[in-house]
Design brief:
3-stranded antiparallel β-sheet, 2 helices
Amino acid sequence: MYPQSITPTTHPPAAEEWRQVPLADFADAYSVSNLGRVRRDAPSPRSRPGDILKPRDHGHGSINVSLCFQGHRRDFSIRHLVALTFPEYQCSRPPTKTELLAFRRALAYLEYLTGCYG
């Protein structure tokens, strides 16, 4: 699977573990897996509970999923969702300042749209 010169530094966990997203608006509606999958837990007009969300690559290096809350859709990096949900699986490299600012801007914009500040 990997070339001989490149080997993963950590081995993936044997079993998939699911936890709720630690963001107040999405905690009841979405769960994140330690393997990087995002699942819908609440019913919606277009999906059923248990549906796995389709990840999208927008071409700038991060794989995103769209989370919806009160009719507003927001893209989040799967990498950031897993890092927030599973702090014990943190990578050796901390997020860059640009990555943190982009994530904070996304959350602030969602709060602005929904009027929920928490």
